Amino acid sequence: MYEEFYKENIKKLELNYKNDVFYGKYKRYFKTGEIELEGFYRDGLKEGKWISYHQNGNIYSKANYVHDKIEGKSIIYSESGNKKYELNFVNGKKNGEMKEFLENGNLKLVGNYKDDFEEGNWFEYNEETGKIKEKI
Predict the structure, then answer these.
(1) What class has domain 74-136?
(2) Does residue 117 carry a pLDDT above 90?
(3) CA torsion angle 82 26 44 67 (round to 10)
(4) Cα–Cα separations (whole angstroms), residue 76 to 15, 52, 86, 123, 131
(5) What was the pLDDT predicted at 129?
(6) Nearest Cα to 100, choosing from 68, 135, 70?
(7) What fold does the segment set 1-70 form as a domain?
(8) For position 127, what pLDDT does the model report?
(9) Domain locations in the chain as residue ranges
């Protein structure tokens, strides 16, 4: 196991090597000692669930990796812990529906991606009027 520390003797990084490449659990910490990022490496590539955190300890994002590329549903949260974005990835690129949420949890924006590019109609929800408008 390899560990790295900030000059204040607070852990900064914790990881394992196998045959000179990252392998196994990976953890990175803020200067305050709270966890910033955790995940798993296999043969030097990100694999499985990766979670990053805000400094207050709440989850910032959840994503799944396959051979170092983000895959499937990824969720980004606000510092208060509410869902902010929900995106889908295929082979490391945004594909499928994307949703953006207001801090109160209500839907703000919905649209689709194909290979990282916006595609089709996008709709924005106006909280005050309750109306939906097409975003151009």
Answers:
(1) mainly beta
(2) yes
(3) -30
(4) 24, 9, 7, 20, 25
(5) 72
(6) 135
(7) 2.20.110
(8) 76
(9) 1-70, 74-136
